[in-house]
Design brief:
single chain; alpha+beta; nine-stranded mixed sheet; 20 strands; binds zinc ion
């Protein structure tokens, strides 16, 4: 018999599902959360969606998953944060939050008395990650990002955390499984708490469709089976391309952006990825692949600002 599953003011007794809001510490902000507490004990899994403002397949997946999961079938506990970055979601802003201009996925583990993004990260870290055994953070191509689905797992961390994270990531039904050295995002920060997990990317350009949501739901359920939180056989999705690490280029001029590569194109180190021109078509800067690999996402907006991501190669 398991005990109550608590986060903030939400309490799910064994065998129950509770939906409500989790108050962000030292703010008026509330996050929509579902807690599912199985009747039998098992792992505690945290699923976050809507980390960035325009990554809609993740949010719709979280909403549906929360409604579909039946505590009678769950061994252990699942917490789902339907929209983690509520301010960015409603501001319809990509990359950063409207209150502090910070990238929410670069401020983990957060600060109790920090900016809005830092307070949300702190609340997720202390209320959810602190009691978890595994975490999944769901993303997608933001408003102006064309993206082929991929999943990032923490590499260069404790061996057992890396191997569990990588194995679980490879069960999402996503072809490209990519190592990452990030430490200040959701999954990187989670590893410092001894928590394996991954960051998945499905969907692009601020759009969402049934196919993407179905793909997400199927993958997450497969990982929950692997973690023995849901019953049933783990599916083997077959072909996976493992990529050791990703590397991107960012704009160092404001102007107009002209990519020279397509999604999933194999590029060699030094190959031209695109250029930024001014409003009179004069080239301001050219960008080249920082490593051999596969193009995982390409920014699609003609408008570009200093610091914006342009292309990522995995
Ligand atoms: Zn994202």
């Amino acid at each position: 018999m398991s005990s109550d599953f608590k986060a903030g003011q939400l309490i799910a007794p064994p065998g129950s599902k509770v939906q409500g809001t989790l108050r962000v510490e030292n703010s008026d902000l509330e996050l929509p959360v579902t807690l599912i507490n199985g009747e039998t004990s098992g792992k505690t899994v945290i699923i976050t969606a809507g980390t960035h403002g325009g990554e809609y397949p993740s949010v719709e997946t979280a909403i549906r998953l929360a409604n579909q999961l039946d505590p009678q079938n769950v061994s252990g506990r699942i917490a789902i944060v339907h929209v983690a970055n509520v301010p960015a979601f409603h501001a319809k802003m990509q990359y950063v939050g409207p209150d502090d201009g910070k990238n929410f996925n670069r401020v983990f583990p957060g600060k109790a008395l920090g900016t809005t993004s830092e307070k949300i990260a702190y609340t997720i870290t202390t209320e959810l990650y602190a009691q978890a055994d595994f975490q999944m953070d769901l993303h997608g191509g933001d408003l102006h990002e064309a993206l082929v689905p991929f999943v990032l797992y923490p590499s260069g961390v404790q061996e057992e955390i890396e191997s569990v994270s990588k194995e679980a990531a490879s069960l999402m039904g996503i072809r490209y499984v990519v190592g990452s050295l990030s430490t200040n995002g959701t999954y990187g920060s989670a590893t410092t708490l001894g928590l394996p997990g991954f960051l998945a990317e499905i969907g692009q350009c601020g759009l969402w469709n049934e196919e993407e949501v179905t793909s997400y739901l199927r993958g997450i359920q497969n990982v929950l089976k692997y973690l023995k939180v849901l019953p049933g056989e783990v599916e083997d999705y077959g072909a996976i391309t493992y990529l050791p690490k990703m590397a991107g280029v960012n704009a160092d001029h404001a102007g107009c952006w002209y990519p020279a590569v397509r999604l999933e194109e194999r590029v060699s180190k030094g190959q031209k990825l695109g250029e930024i021109r001014d409003y009179f078509a004069k080239i301001l800067s050219e960008y080249f692949a920082p490593q051999d690999g596969v193009v995982l996402y390409v920014v699609t907006s003609l408008a570009i600002n200093v610091g914006d991501p342009l292309v990522v190669v995995g």
